Structure formats: C-alpha cells, structure tokens
What does this fold into?
Amino acid sequence: MTQRVPVVEKILNANDRLATDNRAKLDAAGVFALNFMASPGAGKTSLIEHTIQGLRGKLRLAVIDGDIATSLDADRAAAAGAQAVQINTGGECHLDAVMLHDALANLDLSTIDLLIVENVGNLICPASFQLGTHQSVLIASVPEGDDKPYKYPGMYRGVDAMVINKIDLLPYVTFNMEYFQRGVEILNPGVVNFPLSCRTGEGIDAWISWVDQQVKTIRAV
Ligand SMILES: Nc1nc2c(ncn2[C@@H]2O[C@H](COP(=O)(O)OP(=O)(O)O)[C@@H](O)[C@H]2O)c(=O)[nH]1
Ligand SMILES: [Mg+2]
It folds into this structure.
C-alpha cells in the first residue's frame, strides 16, 4: 500500500516556525510590518510610494520588495525615500519566511518604525505563506473586475485590511462596487477597507491615518 507523505504540510509548518522568529525579531526592534499582496499591476508599488510620502517626517520606513526577476520596485521605493531591499525569488510565485528572514538581515531594524513587504504579484500562492509581518493588506483594483473575491476566496479571507485602488477608473470600467463588497463581506466580515486612487490621491489620507494608527497601537502594547 502506498503511504501519503504530507510534504506540503511539513513545508508550511517549517515556514510558520520561521515566521514566528521573524515576528519576534521585528517586535524586539519595535518595527511594525505590513505584507502587501495583490495581482500584478494592482498598484502595490504606487501605494508604497504614497505611503512613504504621506508618513515622511513622522515614521521611518523600509521596504522589502519581492519580485521574480527585477529590482525595479525596490528602486522606486528607494527613490521615494525609504531604505529598500530587493528579494529576487528566482521565479517563485510568493515570498516565504526564509526569504524575509534573509532580507531582514540586510536592514538595520533599530532605525525603522514601519516595514512594508511587497509580495510577488499573485492572488493565490502568497496567501499560503506566513511571513511574520503583523498585518496583511490586499490591494484590489477596479480594472481587475468585481468578481475577484468570489474567484480568489483564500486571499480575500485571510487579510486584515483591504485597499480598492484605481477608483478614478470607475466611470470607465464595469465594476459593481456593491457586488464586490458583498463578496468581501461574506469572506471577511467587517474587514477595514480603503477605496482610493493612487493616480488622483483621493482616499489616500484615510489610508495613511490608518497605517499611522496601527504603528501607534502596536507600540502601545
Ligand atoms: N488609473 C490609475 N492607475 C494606477 C493607479 N495606481 C497605479 N496605477 C498604475 O498601474 C500600473 C501598475 O502600478 P504598480 O504600482 O506598479 O503596481 P504593482 O505591480 O501592484 O506594484 C502603473 O502603470 C501605475 O501608474 C490608480 O489609482 N489609477
Ligand atoms: Mg510592484
């Protein structure tokens, strides 16, 4: 009789143990960390640029950028004024706790208040791998379509906050906000969400205040 070896489960367990180590390291240094997940092109890097700008002079930011091949996004974060570290995943469709662990070694955590991790653009694999960040944020965007919560429930179910980017495109794209929000509410009741536009800046202030508040809350614990 063949025996089924739960390899995937073992890999995920090992990942979760290292994620716990990453969290302990961040907590010891007083760094609050967000994991940004989204489809390619949803606006993760654009939102990172706005967040750096919006918190300039208030919080010290660092960005870890996961990409399958280039350092373009890390270059954009550095140009916007954050410490930036690039992780090239070599084709892997997600970041994992080992990659974050190695990237953290390249940052001086004592000089950072907020760390944003830009995960690889993908609505499936990143949801399965804990990194050790404090909260995960899904950046949805209007042109992706209003059916995405229904098609990618794993991603929508697991996040702590959600951004709906590119609302400037609502007049031009068929996107029923009520239908979209209903799908989100079924999967993740009450999740905080921020409709905004990185193009026009509409809604960005509410997002920046929320991030600022999260950092303060974690510091107060
Ligand atoms: N119209 C519009 N375009 C946006 C918005 N945010 C980002 N973009 C554009 O969408 C593309 C992908 O953005 P990027 O931040 O690189 O997405 P990422 O792949 O998720 O990091 C770029 O051409 C951005 O200029 C927005 O709010 N409105
Ligand atoms: Mg990007």
